[in-house]
Structure formats: structure tokens, C-alpha cells
Amino acid sequence: MTDIGGRPIDVSAWIGGYPFRHVPHPDPDVLVRVLAREGFAGAWVGHLPGAFHRDPVPSNRALLALLAPFRTVLHPTPIVRPDWPRWERMLSEAVAEGAPAVRAYPTLWGMGPGHPAMAELAVACGEAGVALHLTVRFEDLRQRHALDAAGDLSAAAVRHLARLPRSCAQLVVAGAGREFIEEVHWGLTAHEQQRVWYDWHWLWGPPEDHFAHLVQTIGAERLAWSSWWPLRLTQQAQALVDLLPTGPVNESPRASFADGRRIAEAARSAAAVARSPG
Length: 278
Prior knowledge:
Blueprint: E1 9-15, H1 28-38, E2 42-47, H2 57-67, E3 74-76, H3 87-96, E4 101-104, H4 116-128, E5 131-135, H5 155-163, E6 171-174, H6 178-185, H7 190-193, E7 196-199, H8 210-217, E8 223-224, H9 236-242, H10 260-275
Parallel strand pairs: 1-2, 2-3, 4-5, 5-6, 6-7, 7-8
Helix pairs in contact: 3-4, 5-6
């Protein structure tokens, strides 16, 4: 695994338990070892239990405390809920902690496509120079618990955020399939496409080869490395790269894939341009 600046930064990892089934070893010290084993330089880390809490503040505090001994490798991505009191303070505290991104779970909060609070959050993230991380789903429908009734994030919701005329936010979409990615990507202008990134952990490899198809069509630069620890097999991302067909189109895609480092730099650069006069 290689990327600009060395080993890639994983954009989709969590610590903590999952309310609908047991997940093994959801601890930060284990994640550090997993990342080293799989060739990652670090990870954007969210607090998995907090995704299902009404109030994200205690979850964010727990996340920062648990990651404190590992901050050179594990980069906190706290939750910001934009319909919650003083959500702006949540965002400013995340920025102060050096978070490269913040996470939002609009389907779990009952926010559909076009919700004004999510639009406000996207604009604020762009101004703050942090990415906005969105999770399509945590589990496949076939294994989902009956109590997990929120549903998947829709492509329309992502397109709406990418199309906001006054936003420069970089959007990271985790857990999307080929149809979702194509629906978003081809529904945006070329400029808007450059602000949306997708991890590929839920894409099919051979024989369907959805991953290879997207590498060839939307480009490797729109696809970001991830581990999806502790919910999925961390080897998935590397396996799909290893299974890419050889040839002129896929001659050297590895250096083109995005990661957390590249996306964080894009978010900071976009904010700086937006703040510059003229």
C-alpha cells in the first residue's frame, strides 16, 4: 500500500462496541496493531457507540480520552450533530483537537435529503477546513438487526450537500456500493465531483469487478483507503487492489488512490482559498 507521503491514512475506522452484535477487539491499542499489520500509517477514528446516541458530547469526550495515548497514529473524528444545541461548539472543539474530519449520521437522526441542518454543517466544515464524513450503512441488509431500522443514507442526500453553492466542504462517503457512487458522481458537475471521496470497502471485486470498473471510470483519485475496523475484514481494501486487472488503464493506480492525508490537505486548502480576499 503506497500513497503520497508514504503509507496511507485509513479514513473509516471506529473504536467501541456495536449495539446490535458483538465486535471483537474494538479497542484503540488493538487498532494500532491492526493498522501496522495492514500497512496503514494511521486512521481517522470515530466512536462507534456514539453514532447511536442522541447526544454526541459524551461520546466525543470518550473518544478523545481513549485516543489520547495513540494520537500519533489514531486521529479523532468526533461526531457533530447539527440539530443539537451548541453544535457549533462541537465543531470548534473538534477543530481545536486537530480533527481532520467530523462525522455525521443523518439517517440515525431522522434527517432526510435536503435537511437544512446538514447543509449548515457542510458549509461550516468547509469554512473550518475539516472534511465531513458520512456513513451509508454499518451492515448489509441481510445481516442487519431488526432494531436497526434507520435505513441507509441516500445518494440524494450526498448530492444535495455536494451541490451547495456556498460550500467548499470535502465529503467522505463510507460504505457505498457501485450504484450509489455512480448515482452521486455522475449527478454532479466536474467541480463538485472533486469534493466527494468514497472508500471502497463495500465494493465487489471479481467476478462483478465493480471496484475495477470505478477505478477506470470515476478514477482512483476519488477512492480512499479504509480498514472499516472493527466491523469488516481489514484486508478487503488491499485484496481489491491486488485483484485489479493489469493493463494500460490500471498500470499504476496505487499512487492515485486517496487517503486521509490527501483529503485533509484538500479540506485545508479549500478553506484557505475560500477565506482569501478576491
